[in-house]
């Protein structure tokens, strides 16, 4: 397809068709030339800042991030974009089991499916350097700034309680021995 045809395709069919939104099959060819090396090189030309690749859903992709000097951001968008995608915690566990070197060379960030303080503690214990929450604060925002403040207090209390019940005095002392992944055995 020529660049003129591609431009024409981008301008066609953008009317709202209810549930039919997002890239069409005809547009999917635009991404066929994607590869990690050229994408990271392109991003590095744009900035000197650290680069994180979001929506990593497998330990193999986390290894690719490590090999290309970028940070993996584990996310399944809270399960709303691709039903059945592994949770960020399951992907984190898979990285820990299959290639824990990723945690030594990258700052792993986790979001999606994090609902409670215990989820935050699990992510940190498994090696995440950061944990993002979206939906919890979105719902809390329905009650204004006070709702967000309360959500933060609840999560803080849950984290503190979980850490205390583990017998840990500081979050920095957490490690994978504190996570019993019985309910996460089947990882991606």
UniProtKB/TrEMBL annotation:
Keyword terms, alphabetized: Oxidoreductase
One Pfam family hit: FMN_dh
Database matches in InterPro entries: Aldolase_TIM, FMN-dep_DH, FMN_HAD, FMN_hydac_DH_AS
One annotated GO molecular function: oxidoreductase activity
Limits of the FMN hydroxy acid dehydrogenase domain: 1-184
Keyword Oxidoreductase: yes
Name this polypeptide is given: Oxidoreductase
Cofactor needs: FMN
